[in-house]
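Human: We require from you a protein record containing the residue sequence and its fold in token form, and nothing else.

Assistant:
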Amino acid sequence: MNSFSVMDRTDDAETVKEIDAAVERLGAAKAEVDRIIFGQGDVVERSLIAVLCGGHALLVGVPGLAKTKLVSTLGTVLGLDDRRIQFTPDLMPSDILGAEVLEQAASGERAFRFIKGPVFAQLLMADEINRASPRTQSALLQAMQEGFVTVAGTPHALPTPFHVLATQNPLEQEGTYPLPEAQLDRFLMQIDVVYPHRDAERRILLDTTGVEDATPAAILTREELMSFQTLVRRIPVGEAVVDAILDLIRSARPEDNEDMADKIAWGPGPRAGQALMLAVRARAMLTGRLAPSRDDVTALAEPILQHRMALTYTARADGHTVKGIIAELAGRL
């Protein structure tokens, strides 16, 4: 039985079969994550979308909302080698990337040997990334964009796939350092983690305070995940969806939208459009469709754009928010 509720036109029957099989496997992976993480369905879906796109995600929320547990669970379920870095004010770039050490052999010969840092993982969790200084935060910049790091002038390739899922405390809390705009733009999306609803919180109280705690099982393999990432890029996108993406991205720039010139200080660049193009494809595949729709663009507008925009002082003083502006722009599509 085909798992698609709506069959869009496609000329590639083999791609249809591949997507159908991928939907079943991804559904099993999402169900396993949902078994461990209660009441965060949207967060789980968006995290999976980010990974399917081959990108990085920024999880924002107050402490205690299972952000750390979500990332470790994803690592296990998706079959990825995962590591965790706890960002603190005294963390140094070498603590992330690694360093060269001088070793002396029994013969007396000396040579430098590179000791890899925790960044050499397929799924890296940067926990409370905005607790560290901007210098240390920037140590991830090249890794996130280029897939390698350079230490002492020598490049070192990172594992494949390579994903950074960073958690961030709200900037209003003490001891936080805002991430530079250039690094924020490297995150495919920002995922806001909110408080669970009452029924989910009741389940948390009952299921996580007993003698045994649920542990996730591996559902996918690294090879499967990488094949799904390639498949996402093969999903066709209709002209109407492409136009919707362009309309949304360009309307969020003050230079291209006179109505918003007094509200938006700076808007998203072309990388935002690339991220949205991939994300709508991944969302379509994750929900069992052969092609994305304009509804996918609307649904993903906020997580893709909110960390790539800033409002003017006047707009903030008048009570406008980035989320509100995005919702207004998306409502015009």
